[in-house]
User: Fold this.
Amino acid sequence: MVLSTPDLEGSLREVADITSRMLPEHPMVAITLRRDGDAITVASTGPHATLIDELQRGQGLGPCLEALHTATPVAVTDMSTETRWGAYPARMLAQGIHSVHSQPLLVDDAAVGTLNLYSPRPETFGPAALRAIMLTSAHTAILLSAAINSARQAELTAQLRSALASRSIIDQALGITMAQRHCDRDAAFEVLRAASQRENVKLVVVAAQVIRAVTGNDPTPPHFNVPTRPKRVRRNS
Assistant:
């Protein structure tokens, strides 16, 4: 499912900026989301934050990816003494980064992304900063949950419309077949089903071929009316 939209990315950029401004030392902030089985940086406080956030993608190791996979926070208090993740610590030090904190963004107890903070100083993220980070991640997760629900609803609506459109085309083809063969609906359906199996194509494709052969035109898709809220009538007192 695609989580990222222009509106969502704009909101997440605001989250990154606000998080950076409210914390001591104003660390760089980046937000990573799962997308099509991968982890993508979708918002940050600037190009440098995006660059260092994406450095771990190449070798598939780093605090952000670990937080995403384990759904638990991952902290690096001093990159100069860090021994995890292969060459990652050296690459971070080369970018001037000495401490990192990756906070998972949890929706229904699953990590859908991470809030990643990068500082040029070691031991930047103390107890007060961590409390603020946890609060920010919780609010960001609410935003992502709403986006996920909206995306699911849009996907379900699209699937329903596709199913109804297919049903309309099949119904039209059944009517044509019944008229041509002087048979009932069940017999007409068996004719279309047999053609579908014989040609190894979906039933709706066969139905469209029947309509096209008779009318010379492609099937007309059904029109869907999008429900709207009724306007409130204002009464004069």
Notes: The chain has seven helices and five strands. The first strand starts at residue 28 and ends at 35. Helices lie at 6-22, 47-54, 63-70, 88-94, 127-181, 185-199, 203-215. Residues 6-152 form a domain with the Beta-Lactamase fold (CATH 3.30.450.40).
